[in-house]
Amino acid sequence: MYEKSTRGWLKHLDFLVLDCLCLEVAFFLSCFFYLKIRNFLQDDLYRDLAVVLLLIETFVLFFFESLKNVLKRGIYKEMVETLRHDVLVILLCTFYLFLTKTGGVYSRGSLLMTGCIYFFLSYTTRLLWKKYLWKKSLSSGRRSLLIVTSQEYIKDVVKNIKNNNYEGFYLSGIAVVDADLVGSIIDGVQVVADVNSVADYVCREWVDEVFLNLPLGSPACERLTKVFLEMGVTVHEKLAHIHEYIGQKQRIEPLGTYTVLTTSVNMVTQKQMLLKRFIDICGGLIGCVFTLLLTVIVGPWIYIKSPGPIFFSQIRVGKNGKKFRIYKFRSMYMDAEERKKELEAQNNFGNGLMFKLDDDPRIIKGVGHFIRKTSIDEFPQFWNVLKGDMSLVGTRPPTVDEWQKYELHHRARLAIKPGLTGMWQANGRSEITDFEKVVKLDMKYICDWSLGLDIKLLVKTILVVLKREGSK
């Protein structure tokens, strides 16, 4: 699932916060040095204006889009845009003083000094912060990008993306479709696949998005695009190659200095993802508090029944193949992983893509069955939610051995963050033992995602757990 960019003020909240801090510092310094006011918070006029300036700052950033393309602006362009923004803030502040009839009381020299200091601080801070983000994006990024290109374009496209990496991508590698260059290093980025192995590489590794930069008429272009979309990977395709993919979401946008057609199974705005993350943080904090309380009660019980760690951790596969460590209350005996192979024949999912037994003998008698029946064993995962590895609602994260058995279309269920609950859990997971049905439910969630659907599934999951507990 692809996160569409939105207005500058929301996309760059870090710049908004920094600009607000610079404005408040400028206001304080002008009061201190020009008016000799040691504590302006004691004066109603200046205290109120300090708050109004923050509102004006946010207003200007939102309605005048002062941060639009901020990462792509050079030193001179940034100076012009910062000056424009500064003038608008001071003019609106003057207008506010006029409307409130306090202009005659407030010092015009202090206001002018505030504007001058603010311009210097804001301009300097923006340049330094962009430099920091630029360095950070070269080493590690929020999203992983695989470049698929030909031997003819390879050097130019890698240089272009690295020098114009405004989105902060982590370049996971290069796939060359018309030559065997696997293992080669191009401008610091490794060639990781050829035309025959690229699909398998995307299926097994952390790849969020793919950029296709291939010659016009390349037979590999359309074929690879269909394969990547089947796996739920977002595809950026240079506009020389435009195809119609039924049921997919598409938009035209810049990538580096290229104009590309971006295709994905679903697209959401950063505003929507910000709200989802806000809900996750709130839920994660509340869940962690309950986890601490449950640890005091359940922890000793687990240790008495089966001496060893109270918590169980395991490497799982998250969004687009990114691995993370998941946490649970330990509900099984210490040798559970070793005994798993002996029980494979009894697995409800016979293909090994998931593992579930009706009466698992590895579960600790008493406490293990209880915390599983009530889903208490899942509570430590609220820490994963708080960290950002998981979401409250998503898809079940597979183990590494399950993930290695995935076919290409199974990979699509990893297009979003894994969740504590999801369509499968809320729709009778005990009765569904066909992995293809699980994938179908997950894809329905990904394609139809909305905040309303998340809330609906959370409520439904709570009712399912309560019903299960009531039927004991």
Protein model, in words:
- The chain is α/β, with parallel strands linked by helices and 472 residues long.
- Helices cover 48% and strands 15% of the residues.
- The protein has 16 helices and 14 strands.
- The strands form four sheets. It has an eight-stranded mixed beta sheet, sandwiched between helices. A two-stranded parallel ribbon has the order 1-10.
- Helix 13 links the parallel strand 13 and strand 14.
- It starts with a strand and ends with a helix.
Task: Give a brief rundown of this model.
With 472 residues, the protein is of the alpha/beta class. The chain has helices at residues 8-11, 13-33, 44-63, 75-99, 108-139, 154-163, 198-204, 219-230, 270-305, 336-340, 367-373, 381-387, 400-403, 423-426, 435-447, 451-470, and strands at residues 2-4, 143-149, 169-176, 185-186, 189-194, 209-213, 234-238, 249-255, 258-264, 267-269, 311-317, 323-329, 391-393, 419-421.
